[in-house]
Write a structure and sequence with these properties.
By secondary structure, the protein is mostly helical. It is built from six helices and three strands; from the N terminus they run H-H-E-H-E-E-H-H-H. The chain has one domain: Zincin-like, CATH 3.30.2010. Strands 1-3-2 form a three-stranded mixed β-sheet. It is globular, with a radius of gyration of 16 Å.
Length: 137
């Protein structure tokens, strides 16, 4: 996939963040990189496996009105690991959406355990139900 097409996937995933969360995203930049660097892997504590995304910055609950000017936080989405893990274009789209959600949760102050719990709950809520023929809602 071209970098531009992958950028559009990330933009689409960002647009799917509910408005009540999206409007609170301040001073954060979404960045796409091809692969995580050794520094990225080390900062995420990843020894083996794939790093799909990384939040770098000061979580929202730790910010203060007394803070001076600060550079934007970054949510970095890595294209290469997503493409290697994806089984289809639809699966790639889902992986990117899940990664964006995951990193946004860190921005809002959730630790890894809390993010994983919230992800499980979100998957249950968004999984197709028998009485909901439309699938996702």
């Amino acid at each position: 996939m071209s970098p531009q097409d992958f950028d559009r996937l990330v933009e689409s995933a960002c647009a799917r963040i509910p408005a009540r969360f999206r409007k609170r995203l301040e001073n954060v930049a979404f960045v796409v990189e091809q692969e995580p660097s050794a520094r990225h892997l080390a900062s995420a504590g990843v020894v083996s496996g794939s790093l799909l995304g990384l939040y770098q910055g000061r979580p929202l609950p730790q910010r203060s009105v007394q803070d001076g000017f600060v550079m934007p936080d970054q949510i970095i989405i890595f294209q290469g690991p997503h493409e290697r893990l994806a089984r289809s274009p639809a699966h790639l789209r889902t992986l990117v959406e899940q990664t964006v959600w995951h990193e946004v949760a860190h921005y809002f102050g959730m630790n890894e355990r809390q993010v994983r719990t919230a992800e499980r709950r979100r998957r249950k809520l968004s999984s197709p139900r028998r009485e909901s023929p439309g699938g996702r809602f």
